Amino acid sequence: MEFGTPAFGAGLLQIIGIDIVLSGDNALVIALACRSLPTNQRKWGILLGTGAAIALRIAFAAAIVYVLEIPLLKFAGALLLVWVAIKLVVSEQDGTASASGKHEATTLWEAVRIVAIADAVMSLDNVLAVAAAAKGSVMLLALGIAISIPLMVVGSAMMLWLLDRVPLLAVAGSGLLGWIAGGLAAHDPIVGPWIAAQVSWLPVALPYLTCIGVMAFGLVLRRRAAIVTAGQTP
Fold first, then answer.
1. Separation between Cα atoms, residue 177 and residue 192, nearest integer Å
2. pTM, whole model, 2 decimals?
3. What residues form the membrane-spanning segments (predicted)?
4. Which domain holds residue 187?
5. Residue 155 belongs to a domain
6. Residue pLDDT tens, the chain, 234 long
């Protein structure tokens, strides 16, 4: 696929569309993980989180053929994503301050670690979609990765602004990660058919179930943690 041809232009438009849709998931994770950071560390959290996501996409793009042959990869990724989503709900604190008045925040590197784990899962689907649109063009694949950088940086900053003003959206965002996890598990080449053989409607319902389950379980754990904290307050 040569530069300047109609096929190249069509492929580039497809990749831009894919990046707009899928980079939003990465931006959401970065925003959720960085929201608990002090204000002066948020910019670094966004930049380092975006850097981790891009590094993972490059690694997946370089080894996509080998990655696809790993059995149960999507199922393992779904479990990791559920863990990240629940952790983000539990760590989310309305008011972001403890009873003692001290700011409760994760460290910068803890936030980056959470982003890297989630991005390791979600970047796989992003690279697969972009690789399919690129149809073997290394230039298109590189452009797809380059285009996703500003989308994630700007998207993360916008979502952080929104989460500060509507804290309840953090729970909804974690539910979205649960939805993605359910979809990954349902489309795993090994687990997906096994699930369908047990209960025919479960693969379709699984994203809904994981979405609701993540939000409910995370809220229960967060409420329990809040009760424990209140009981320890003098």
1. 18
2. 0.66
3. 12-34, 46-66, 72-90, 111-134, 140-161, 168-187, 199-221
4. 6-232
5. yes
6. 555 567 667 777 777 766 666 667 778 778 888 887 888 888 888 888 888 878 877 777 767 656 656 777 778 878 877 877 777 776 654 444 333 333 334 577 777 777 777 777 776 666 666 666 666 677 777 777 777 778 777 888 887 888 778 777 778 878 888 888 888 788 888 888 888 888 889 888 998 999 898 888 877 877 776 676 666 555
